[in-house]
Specification:
mainly beta; 13% helix; 16-stranded antiparallel beta sheet; 3 helices
């Protein structure tokens, strides 16, 4: 998937992530009042004694206030069962596309009232506006069915992204300002296959046009296909497993995800290439307020991808401290460790460090001492949802060439 379209996917994922916090709050409100005295997991079903219908005499003895309160509770219950509309403004700061805001709107609901196992489903929309004139919108949804047996994800994004392509070799230190406009559609259908693994097919189609923005100075040579409308179409497979108890702030367990995308001219794609991404994270709870998180990430491409179809260092949170577009190649591997401390009054502190490399293709697949791309930094956290520990994240990171500042919702991994 291209750099621009990966960012649209992350925009929608960020929106759905924030809306998911509201989904958990809604689910918690639907638990019976008696359960507030017990330690009940968010997804655990609760059984209450059957309420006996009052007699006519008892109904006549009820006060008007009690009757009104009962009717109001019934209305609130029916309203909650229908679902909930939420709005979430999300500030963002990205070294590649600047600072701005994502406005997300979503509707959270249960597909089946009898399904007490599946997480809430949701549909959402998001709009993006940043300081470097990046604009766009995204629509999408996540649906859980049949006692959490199936998970369906679909999203669509359209807009323009402004970013820089950095030169190398004799053009090192120069950058080419680009604008990539287009749209992308992605769909994924996963089924639980046992041991908390979900497996299923995925499909994506994207179109984009790449142009050079005005620049006052020397720039590296422009990439091929400049100004041409390019279509990329792929089919693939996703395998994932999550054993953490809280997907917003894991304090234990593991997370694994593998995706493969096969772009082919027989599917209508301009380029034929393959993309593979694997990520694994492990979490240790040292105490009630302390967590250590470890993450390893690997990306590989094959065939003949465009420059934006390669593995791009800094395009996500592996690793922080680098601007997307400066380091990209056929392979990429990163590993990082993060210490998380929860303070009183909703605040928190993190410190992190890691190392990685963007690796060319061919026989040169080992680390080179002069090509390590280290990263270190720290950040502050503020709990937007105290019950489920959903944080607003602000990180400053130092890479080999400089530092970056990033702002977002949820942990980096």
């Amino acid at each position: 998937m291209t750099t621009a379209f990966l960012r649209w996917r992350r925009l929608l994922a960020l929106s759905l992530f924030a809306l998911g916090a509201y989904a958990d709050r809604l689910e918690a409100r639907e638990l019976p009042a008696a359960s507030s005295q017990a330690n009940i997991a968010p997804n655990e079903s609760v059984t209450t004694d059957q309420e006996v219908a009052p007699t006519a005499v008892e109904q006549s003895l009820r006060s008007p206030a009690a009757t009104q309160s009962s009717e109001q509770s019934e209305k609130e219950k029916k309203h909650q069962q229908r679902g909930s509309v939420v709005v979430a403004p999300i500030p963002i700061s990205n070294p590649a596309i600047g600072s701005g805001v994502v406005i997300a709107v979503g509707y959270i609901f249960s597909l089946s009232k009898s399904d007490k196992v599946s997480p809430p489903s949701l549909v959402g929309a998001a709009g993006l506006l940043t300081s470097n004139s990046t604009r766009g919108f995204a629509l999408g949804g996540q649906f859980y069915l049949k006692q959490n047996t199936y998970k369906i994800t679909t999203d669509f994004g359209r807009g323009n992204l402004n970013y820089d392509l950095y030169g190398s070799g004799q053009f090192a230190g120069l950058k080419l300002p680009l604008q990539q406009t287009g749209q992308v559609f992605h769909g994924e259908f996963l089924r639980r296959i046992g041991w908390k693994f979900f497996l299923g097919p995925r499909f994506s189609i994207a179109t984009s046009t790449l142009t050079v923005r005005p620049s006052s100075g020397d720039t590296p040579p422009p990439p091929p296909d400049l100004g041409l409308n390019t279509t990329l179409t792929a089919v693939g497979v996703t395998l994932t497993r999550d054993t953490s108890l809280n997907r917003f702030y894991p304090t234990g367990g593991t997370y694994f995800r593998f995706t493969s995308d096969f772009f082919s001219q027989t599917l209508g794609s301009k380029y034929s290439f393959q993309s593979y991404v694997t990520t694994f994270a492990k979490y240790w709870g040292l105490s009630k307020n302390q967590v250590v998180a470890y993450d390893v990430y690997f990306c590989a491409t094959g065939g003949t991808p465009p420059f934006y179809g390669n593995c791009i260092y800094g395009s996500s949170n592996q690793l922080r401290g680098y601007v997307a577009g400066k380091y990209f190649d056929r392979y990429m591997v990163t590993t990082q460790l993060e210490y998380r401390l929860a303070w009183p009054w909703r605040f928190g502190l993190v410190a992190f460090g890691g190392v990685g490399e963007a690796i060319p293709g061919g026989d040169r697949l080992l680390f080179r001492d002069n090509s390590f791309l280290p990263s270190a930094g720290g950040g502050l956290r503020f709990q937007l949802s105290k019950q489920y520990h959903v944080n607003l994240r602000a990180d400053v990171a130092r890479g080999r060439d400089g530092h970056t500042f990033s702002l977002g919702i949820g942990e980096a991994f």
